[in-house]
Amino acid sequence: MTEIHTPRLLLRRWHDDDLAPLADINADPRVMQWIGDGSTLDLDQTAEAIERWEEEWDDEGFGIFAVELLASGELAGLVGLTVPTYLPEVLPAVEICWRLGQSFWGQGYASEAAQATLEFALQDRGLDRVIAIDRMGNEASENVIRKLGMEPERETTHPEYGFALQVHAIDLTEYV
User: Fold this and answer.
1) What is the pTM of this model?
2) Is 103 exposed, middle or buried (0-12, 13-18, 19+ CB in 10 A)?
3) 77: closest CA among 37, 41, 130?
4) Which residues, in sequence order, are bridge partners of residue 164?
């Protein structure tokens, strides 16, 4: 089982008891406003997402981690690696992404989890390049992306929803 420990977090595969807390996070309109079309997800949709993420682990050797606080055992959200099939113009590529519950915002957890995941991608999984795709105006994600050392690569439009996206990238030779 793949696990990553950071000073405050455990990044791990999904457990059955993660479904309800992640569904609560996915049901929050403020959390979901920058994700997909901004719609919240219910319990069944959250279960389907976890199932897809676990299949990606099996198929690709990487995927989306559950983010657990070491101090309390609480599920804070998710971070991980995925193939951004919704944006064919960037393929082949691996995207780093994250989503935390509101009560975990502003404490550096997203940056801590994303940095550990980027290191995992470039050093453990042997990827040469990782991208991050964010919706224009999402300043919180922009801050995390900057902390990762990723550079803007291109602006584009979401093919289904029509809003502006920015693609950032870092490759192994730029990773410090």
Assistant:
1) 0.96
2) exposed
3) 41
4) 157
